[in-house]
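Question: Hello, beginner here. Any chance you could explain the protein record under this note? Any guidance would be welcome.
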Amino acid sequence: MSKGKSKAVLPVTKTRIPITARALVQRVRRALAKEGGRLLVNRGRQHLGYGGVYYVVDQNRNVTTVDVDLETVGKELGVLHPWERVVADED
């Protein structure tokens, strides 16, 4: 028998840490800024049908991506981790 200390094994849980959509927007904006892009928000109701809520422009203000899904882009950029989940902002 070994006289070393035994290590307790913790059960694996699938708890995901909540982050607000606003926090994810800021993370995505910082990541895109490093690449020369910007995440913008459609403000008018008439524009929502064309490009969704969020869209990406390059440094020359050319639209590069429309109808951006924040969670998908966050995962692609590495700013949304597997242990995090997005929750609605509380106003």
The chain has three helices and five strands. Residues 42 and 83 are 29 Å apart (CA to CA). Residues 21-34 form the longest helix (14 residues). The mean pLDDT is 84.
